[in-house]
């Protein structure tokens, strides 16, 4: 016999008050621990093993810095901003994460999916403000004076309404939107950290994240095609951007710039070949080849000395200023405009950062603090937003490069920031002649990992069909509608899949494994023996309001007995018998004597006297679930069939007790509840 432990009731009010007193106390040691927890660098930096770690950190930092520069310039196309702002973002994010991050290996900075989400908001707001989204269009407002063009007047009016000075042109307004969006996203992340809302990331399954990344990659690819072939088409906005963009591309394909097409073909061939060789011989290479940097340097030199912009009208990056722009507080009025857009941005940024941090922490046997990661990525957005930067996140590709080049701590992030700083202070103007098609090639080749997910669809389908369906829905919605809608659709659809799976779960009748005390599904296994006069029913899901009817239908179908119909049939038969007896006819409706009537009341199809319900897969019961089991108990008892429950977990037993399933004093509990199916079967055999 097993007896339940008596649990002492916890006074939640006292617990909360004690926690508040502990949290609000300001002892010196507590303050010190708080500061050291908030800035983890204070804990690990004094213990830094210089001789052991410094070489790997310097090498990985230099390699990541070299990769960051071309990627930052390239991803500025996705964000719809000038390259200088991408460099600012990469610089500040590395420094702040060095101070606040708990992961030793992740590389936080500019990320393609985040840049795309920022760019979509920037494009929308520019369009609403009356600006031309064409990259090469002249500024709507120049040198502080209003132009006579009607578009300029519209722009000036909208800017005034938005709370921005009329002298602010397209570039100024674009970075204003980006910094406001970044600031709000960072505030959301910090608030989520304060209120410990990290559990939100649990609703983004691997299938949803993969589908979102793949769908967004298709959108990124589509947005870069116009740069690859050098055509000028309007930047599509809103739902269906991918389809509209491809229609515009094919309509204007005849205007393709031959110089850009040839340059793109050469760059893609070089980049893909180098990536494939790098993947094949990565175990022999001490650090990855800086192919992107080589391509950018060579392409810039060719473009400059070949005068490709002047002779062939090839679009180039243009002037990139050096130094730092004075900091500026993000505009509050713009924050209100982008407050809704910042929420999915904050969630995606946090989820990618935490998932990568946990993955590499597990791989290298250390722990991270998810809540501190939320603070770290939040302040990686809040603080840089004052310095003309936009949203950041951890990036898988750069993190893999960091670990493969010997990274040990976030000292490597400081080295990377130093490389970016050198570019910001001295080298940025040298990229003036860099063609935009080269940047587009770098972006497209960087999407290989996400686009390769299409090859995994058959294997994914073989493993789990439902997860594959979630991936397809998320990918399609992200690509064909919008990234935000795709993310929301993926989350909602994955939840619906879980609901459907619990609404129509597997059900089975069990048979006994010969010469054992174990029981399994009759339809799945051979050579199982049927227990005489006993039916064993298994329901593989929680029993609650949404699957109540399915539970009853499955039980009636598998046992081949609906107790309600059988009870109605018996009542109808008894009524006919009474009518015959009143008429003085001692023969029944079947032509039998009254003495033989009792035998007819027991239908021939009832071949069992006990029903055992295997509750091992029922994780919880709600009120409807308890009432359903009570109804089953009552209906089968009316037919003289006993109902026995087996393998119930403690929470299910408690629900049954509270629901009155075992009666008021639980007196019949030992005859209704068993800790194994075999015990229930033995009891049924002994109490025929």
From TrEMBL:
GO cellular component labels: apical plasma membrane
SUPFAM superfamilies xrefs: SpoIIaa-like
Transmembrane annotation, as ranges: 53-75, 95-118, 172-191, 211-229, 334-354, 375-397, 409-427, 471-500
Protein transport as UniProt keyword: no
Catalytic activity: sulfate(out) + 2 chloride(in) = sulfate(in) + 2 chloride(out); iodide(in) + chloride(out) = iodide(out) + chloride(in); oxalate(in) + sulfate(out) = oxalate(out) + sulfate(in); oxalate(out) + 2 chloride(in) = oxalate(in) + 2 chloride(out)
Coiled coil: none
Family classification: Belongs to the SLC26A/SulP transporter (TC 2.A.53) family.
Entry-linked PANTHER family: SULFATE TRANSPORTER (PTHR11814)
Protein name as annotated: Sulfate transporter
Species name: Rhagologus leucostigma
Lineage per the UniProt record: Eukaryota, Metazoa, Chordata, Craniata, Vertebrata
Gene label: Slc26a1
């Amino acid at each position: 016999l097993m007896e339940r432990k008596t649990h002492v009731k916890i006074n939640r009010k006292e617990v909360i008050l004690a926690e508040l007193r502990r949290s609000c106390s300001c002892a010196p040691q507590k303050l010190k621990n708080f500061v050291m927890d908030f800035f983890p660098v204070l804990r690990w930096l004094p213990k830094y093993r210089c001789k052991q770690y410094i070489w790997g950190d310097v090498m990985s930092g230099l390699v990541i810095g070299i990769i960051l520069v071309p990627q930052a310039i390239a991803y500025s196309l996705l964000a719809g901003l000038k390259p200088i702002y991408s460099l600012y973002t990469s610089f500040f994010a590395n420094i702040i994460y060095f101070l606040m991050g708990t992961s030793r290996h992740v590389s936080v900075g500019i990320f393609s999916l985040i840049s795309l989400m920022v760019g979509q908001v920037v494009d929308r707001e520019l369009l609403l403000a009356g600006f031309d989204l064409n990259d090469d269009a002249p500024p709507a407002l120049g040198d502080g004076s209003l132009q006579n063009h009607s578009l300029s007047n519209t722009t000036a009016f909208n800017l005034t309404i938005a709370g921005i000075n009329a002298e602010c042109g397209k570039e100024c307004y674009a970075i204003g939107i980006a910094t406001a969006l970044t600031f709000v996203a960072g505030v959301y992340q910090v608030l989520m950290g304060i209120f410990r809302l990290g559990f939100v990331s649990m609703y983004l399954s691997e299938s949803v994240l993969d589908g979102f990344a793949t769908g967004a990659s298709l959108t990124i690819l589509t947005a870069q095609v116009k740069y690859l072939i050098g055509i000028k088409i309007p930047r599509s906005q809103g739902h269906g951007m991918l389809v509209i963009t491809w229609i515009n591309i094919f309509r204007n394909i005849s205007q393709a710039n031959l110089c850009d097409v040839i340059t793109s073909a050469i760059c893609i061939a070089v980049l893909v070949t180098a990536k494939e060789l790098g993947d094949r011989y990565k175990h022999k290479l001490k650090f990855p080849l800086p192919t992107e940097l080589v391509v950018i340097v060579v392409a810039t030199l060719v473009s400059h000395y070949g005068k490709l912009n002047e002779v062939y009208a090839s679009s180039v990056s243009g002037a990139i200023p050096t130094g730092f722009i004075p900091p500026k507080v993000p505009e509050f009025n713009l924050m209100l405009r982008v407050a809704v857009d910042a929420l999915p941005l904050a969630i995606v940024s946090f989820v990618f950062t935490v998932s990568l941090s946990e993955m590499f922490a597990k791989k290298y046997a250390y722990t991270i603090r998810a809540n501190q990661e939320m603070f770290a990525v939040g302040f990686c957005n809040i603080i840089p937003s004052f310095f003309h930067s936009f949203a950041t996140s951890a990036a898988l590709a750069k993190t893999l490069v960091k670990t493969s080049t010997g990274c040990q701590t976030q000292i490597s992030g400081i080295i990377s920031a130093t490389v970016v700083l050198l570019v910001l202070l001295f080298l940025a103007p040298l990229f003036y002649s860099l063609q935009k098609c080269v940047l587009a090639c770098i972006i497209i080749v960087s999407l290989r990992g996400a686009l390769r997910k299409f090859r995994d669809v058959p294997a994914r389908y073989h493993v789990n069909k439902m997860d594959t369906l979630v991936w397809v829905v998320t990918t399609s919605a992200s690509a064909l509608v919008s990234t935000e809608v795709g993310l929301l659709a993926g989350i909602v659809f994955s939840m619906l899949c879980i609901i459907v799976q619990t609404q129509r779960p597997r059900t089975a009748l069990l048979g006994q494994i010969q010469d054992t005390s174990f029981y399994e599904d009759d339809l799945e296994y051979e050579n199982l023996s049927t227990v005489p006069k006993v039916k064993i029913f298994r329901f593989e899901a929680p029993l609650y309001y949404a699957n109540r009817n399915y539970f009853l239908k499955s039980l009636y179908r598998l046992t081949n007995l609906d107790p309600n119909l059988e009870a109605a049939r018996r009542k109808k038969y008894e009524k006919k018998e009474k009518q015959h007896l009143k008429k003085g006819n001692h023969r029944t409706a079947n032509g039998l004597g009254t003495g033989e009537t009792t035998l007819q009341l027991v239908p021939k199809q009832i071949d069992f006297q006990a029903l055992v319900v295997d509750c091992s897969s029922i994780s919880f019961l709600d009120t409807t679930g308890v009432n359903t089991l009570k109804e089953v108990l009552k209906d089968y008892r009316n037919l003289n069939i006993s109902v026995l429950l087996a393998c119930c977990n403690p929470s299910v037993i408690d629900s049954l007790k509270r629901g009155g399933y075992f009666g008021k004093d639980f007196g019949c509990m030992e005859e209704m509840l068993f800790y194994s199916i075999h015990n229930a079967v033995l009891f049924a055999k002994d109490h025929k």
